[in-house]
From TrEMBL:
Signal peptide: none annotated. HAMAP family: Leu_tRNA_synth_B. This is Leucine--tRNA ligase. Pfam families: Anticodon_1, tRNA-synt_1, tRNA-synt_1_2. SUPFAM superfamilies: Anticodon-binding domain of a subclass of class I aminoacyl-tRNA synthetases (SSF47323), Nucleotidylyl transferase (SSF52374), ValRS/IleRS/LeuRS editing domain (SSF50677). One of its GO terms (molecular function) is leucine-tRNA ligase activity. The lineage of its organism: Bacteria, Thermotogati, Deinococcota, Deinococci, Deinococcales. Residues 656-772 form the Methionyl/Valyl/Leucyl/Isoleucyl-tRNA synthetase anticodon-binding domain.
Amino acid sequence: SGRYNPHAIEEQWQARWTTDGLYTFHDDPSKPAHYALTMFPYPSGNLHMGHWYAYVAPDARARWMRMNGHNVLFPMGFDAFGLPAENAAIKRNLDPRKWTYQNIADMTVQFKRMGTMIDWSRQFNTCDPEYYRWNQWFFIEMFRRGIAYKKGGLVNWCPKDQTVLANEQVVDGRCERCGSVVERRELNQWYLKITDYADELLDFGDADMPERVRLMQQNWIGKSVGAEVDFPTPAGVETVFTTRPDTIMGATFLVLAPEHKKVAELTTPEQQAEVQRYIEAAGQKTDVDRQSATEKTGVFTGSYATHPVSGHQLPIWIADYVLVTYGTGSIMAVPAHDSRDFEFARTYGLEIREVIRPDGAEPMDVDAAVEAYSGEGQLVNSGEFDGLPGGKASIGAVIERLGALGVARAKTTYRLRDWLVSRQRYWGTPIPIVYCPEHGAQPVPDDQLPVRLPDDVAFTPTGQSPLKLDPTFRHTTCPVCGGPAERDTDTMDTFVDSSWYMYRFLNPHLETAPVDAEATRRYMPIDLYTGGIEHAILHLLYSRFWTRVMRDLGLTEHSEPFKVVRNQGIILGPDQEKMSKSRGNVIDPDDLVREYGADTVRAYLMFIAPWEVGGPWDPSGINGPAKWLGRVYALYSDEVSVGPKESTSEADLRYAVHSTLSRVSADFGRLSFNTIISSLMELTNTLVKAKRSPLYGGPVWAEALSIFVRMLAPVVPHLAEELWQQQGEQSSVHLAAWPQVDQQAATRDTVTIGVQVSGKVRGQVQISRTATQAEAMAAARAEESVARFLEGKDTIKEIYVPGKIINIVVSK
Ligand code: ANZ
């Protein structure tokens, strides 16, 4: 057999596995179903180290589940629509379609080198018309139910990408893709009513997600419980949202967002110029700038509102720390108890009125106070509410009283906004709506789906939808009257594509429905979904929303698409920085495969760090796993190295094998891949010794080799297959069962326990786990280091805790 030559082994087995259809998934109702999915990649053109890190360990896990008797689905496809294809195509003067499909072809070749158990017959790309047809189908179903709707309003506009963005795609006021500062534009756009599901999305049911993912989603949804309170103004009643209605009597002025609709009407002629200037300045700032600004700025409108309880006249201001997109876009300011309002009142000399006082404290000196008091206490200066406890306890009571006066009602507000899904770009799913002058917006009839994305479109972004410039696409007929009509020329946000792709893998070629009901029942929710933390909000939230819509459409019975979600860490460059071309610290997995073989790269990526943590690539580190696999290969050869003989007992060898098996099994269960590799490396050392012992060639040795190769199979699938079949096995190691732990062999029958004399440790003894008190004491007394301390003393008491400790208490 010679030396380990990964190249010969890997190419040969990859070809064999394909011919044998080893990884072609078939449902088998006699086995428990298991669906493992790793987020599908964007076809950027190159599979990099991050992809390997993300796919290799879940592949090992999926293989392990298969060996454990599960019917495992582990599919893959490409998330193929989106801006980068267009941008790359513009730069290189290519067709985005050609660019995308070429990248998919290249990346699939790279992917196959990894030696995964992906069933490639199920692959699809979201830009395939057979797939996006169903995006259109869903859109129409949602349109019919009012979940998809069109509305005008201020939207986020990326000036570089020349398209609108969903709120989720704006990070710190910038386009999450290109980093441009996002502008606001008034546009008529399509939305999906995710807010209908806001409360439901806060309920994760049994879904097991990392705590930080849950928190990020909770914060994104941002549920606030409070009240709406009405303030009469010269421009009609203004309703504000507050989480602290208990502080109502401390409201000394109102603040409106500069963009608020009533501002024009409320602004008096004298204030006109100043208000106008302020509004223009605020329009230049991002929401984040506005909310984090250390100095609160604003302008008086010149008008007053009437306090609904006291009847006091409260000045109405505008200020950019109030956002038009949240609550009602206006607030009642309570400077004594809200820090933003406090700063604002200080800056402009507005009244501060204390209404919550800590028990036993002196009244607040509002002229000298340096900050708002946001703690607990009793309500003061609050008329009929005086004496109630401030804060949570009295919110209900206050709302009830204000409600009786007809000026307030309980209200829950969410930060979550409806999902803006239309995009003014080319490379996406056409929105399947037709506009008829007579019949308005009409869905494209089912038998006309898909609405195909036309070829040869001038797609350079102009701010107008490229499809608008294609008259053949644009002009059509009304499905109702047959008269001339126009198509919607926007395309869908690509997050639509990834919101339900996991269902499509169950039956990717189904022509009659988006998803296969039977397979969905059996394989969804996904048992283990893995991917990057960067998708903690957008993609996971949208998928959870989509699943609920599917449930309401009768397509699924469950509400959560994932049973378990886990995030891998990041493999950094050797310099601890993110790998990127511009930093010049990229390690190309293809180069490594050429040098070491895929199995070594796989093993190293699992070994390099706890998988959920990640870490820097250590260029010399890969030599360890490379050498290790060489030693593994040699173990199975007939060549026995010369050297001193070793004496290993059968029990010791079986203990090493079965205790490792037990640990490795547990570690697969908890996705602890680095400890799996180190356990296997350790066992290799034991086996190398055993090969030089008289056990070599005997039945215990044979058992050890057989178990070891099956433990290797999920991790280094090519090498394990080679060794397995070299041993005369006829079928694939990947069809073999995961070995059973022999519990007895896995636990040592002797234990080493400490011996104390009068509470002080004096030695230790090796005794049987089941030794009796008499046997244990005899062994302890025979131990020389112990016996010394017993000489000439009387024994007062003997204590023996089996497996733990022996204590002999003696006279002084
Ligand atoms: C009076 C009050 C008194 C408030 C007090 C707080 C403390 P969350 O928890 O984030 O929902 N608010 C309401 N709408 C706003 C807007 N569009 N832009 C900026 N601030 C807004 O915050 C709710 C609180 O934030 C509301 O309760 C309101 O101020 C302010 F001692 O009302 B509060």
